[in-house]
Design goal:
This protein has 205 residues and is α/β, with parallel strands linked by helices. It has a single domain, classed as 3-Layer(aba) Sandwich (Uracil-DNA Glycosylase, subunit E), CATH 3.40.470.10. 43% of the residues lie in helices and 12% in strands. The chain has 9 helices and 5 strands, in the order H-E-H-H-E-H-E-H-H-E-E-H-H-H. A 5-stranded mixed sheet has the order 2-1-3-5-4, with helices on both faces. Helix 1 runs antiparallel to helix 4.
């Protein structure tokens, strides 16, 4: 099965998933979208109102800011894969619960395996926890670490800037680090250096 076929199969399964209680209140599941061969994968937290209406990730106000951030590093959303740790909207936009995140874990694992991104960017503390454990996002944002041979960068969720305007510049600054990281990983790949070395060997933050 090709990566495109696998992602389509995952999306089909997500749309009919009943593994947790979130399915009972969803209008549309939101499996994620983007190229099957994207070098950059963004993982958010969960769909909101607009995402639930359209079945697409990051299409509300936070999505517009994400598009601005991508544009600032000369990328468009069509060039990256965007998804969430939970694929259905938590009622009232509440935080996703541990059992809901666990119910969706296999879908996300399969998406990552299919896409094989060079860099994963976690947006918000729930996707960050997948790779950084109990670390506080205020302490690790903008930092990178190697997990299973892949570079993972923790960032604030774009929505954080809508609620706390003083974070907006911090998020913009963190985004500016991505092009150098992606380029460094590409150089290592082309030189046959696998797995990706620890982030301490990459551009320091």
């Amino acid at each position: 099965m090709t990566a495109i076929e696998e992602l389509a199969q995952i999306a089909k399964e997500v749309s009919g998933c009943t593994s947790c209680s979130l399915h009972s209140s969803r209008k549309n599941a939101v499996p994620g979208e983007g190229p099957a061969d994207s070098s950059l994968l963004f993982i958010g937290e969960g769909p909101g109102f607009h995402e639930n209406e359209q079945g697409r990730p990051f299409v509300g106000a936070a999505g517009k800011f994400l598009e601005e951030l991508l544009a600032s590093i000369r990328l468009s959303r069509e060039q990256v894969f965007i998804c969430n740790v939970v694929k259905c909207r938590p009622p009232g936009n509440r935080d996703p619960q541990p059992d809901e995140i666990e119910a969706c874990r296999a879908y996300l694992d399969r998406q990552i395996a299919a896409i094989q991104p060079k860099v994963i960017v976690t947006l918000g503390r729930f996707s960050m926890a997948r790779y950084f454990g109990a670390s506080k996002i205020s302490s690790v944002h903008g930092q990178a670490k190697t997990v299973d041979g892949r570079l993972v960068v923790a960032m604030f969720h774009p929505a954080a800037a809508l609620h706390q305007p003083d974070l907006k510049q911090t998020i913009k600054d963190d985004f500016q680090k991505l092009p150098a990281l992606i380029e460094e990983v590409r150089k290592l790949d082309s030189a046959g250096s696998k797995p990706v070395p620890d982030a301490t060997q990459l551009p320091m933050f």
